[in-house]
Amino acid sequence: MSDLTIVFISLSGNTLSFVKRLSLYLEGKYNIQTKPINIKELKHTTFPVEDDFVTILPTYLEGGNGLDSGDVEILTNPLGDFLEAHDNFKHCFGIIGSGNRNFNNQYCLTAKQYEKRFGFPMLGDFELRGTSADIERLAKIIIEQKKTFQGQS
């Protein structure tokens, strides 16, 4: 595996920071070049993604408590639209969620909802911008999951 496509959306800069640091780590440690696709920069345009990819998604919700009183995804909807367009979700081998643990049951809830909606696994999570330990842990998981996914294709 010499390339890795990362489809993500970053609104506050936390996810973008994580993707940049993850990319540097993957290049330095594993000689893997990343191809990041920041959905925010696409301004609601879509295109087919031919490569297998991992998705990284922050949580922005309104209303509800994450358990039984509902919630509404806000701000990150363009990522869901991109995954649906051209059946891009079929090339996604997993999702990583980010969020703020202060929101308890809503922590990474959007990623969990995408896992159910699209049928790909949630590979892990990180809080806010993530730590170096998060990057190391999730890089290993991403590499292993991509190998497994390619074996099924």
The CATH topology assignment is Rossmann fold
Strand arrangement, major sheet: 2-1-3-6-7
Beta-strand fraction estimate: 15-25%
How is the main sheet built?
5 strands, parallel
What is the terminal separation in angstroms? 15 Å
List the uncertain runs. Answer: none
Tell me, briefly, the overall form: globular
CATH domain class: Alpha Beta
Cα-atom radius of gyration: 15 Å
What letter string, H or E per element, gives the SSE order? Answer: EHEHEEEHEHEH
The count of domains is 1
Structural class: alpha/beta
Report on this structure.
The chain has helices spanning 14-30, 39-42, 77-84, 109-118, 132-152, and strands spanning 3-8, 33-38, 53-58, 61-62, 72-73, 92-99, 122-127. Strand 6 (92-99), helix 4 (109-118) and strand 7 (122-127) form a beta-alpha-beta unit. Helix content is 39%, strand content 24%. A 5-stranded parallel sheet has the order 2-1-3-6-7, sandwiched between helices. The longest helix is centred in the C-terminal third of the chain and has 21 residues, at 132-152. The chain has a single domain (4-141), classed as Flavodoxin domain (Rossmann fold, 3-Layer(aba) Sandwich). It has 153 residues and is of the alpha/beta class. The two termini are 15 Å apart. One of its GO terms (molecular function) is FMN binding. It holds the Pfam family Flavodoxin_NdrI. InterPro entries: Flavoprotein-like_sf, RNR_NrdI. This is Putative NrdI-like protein.
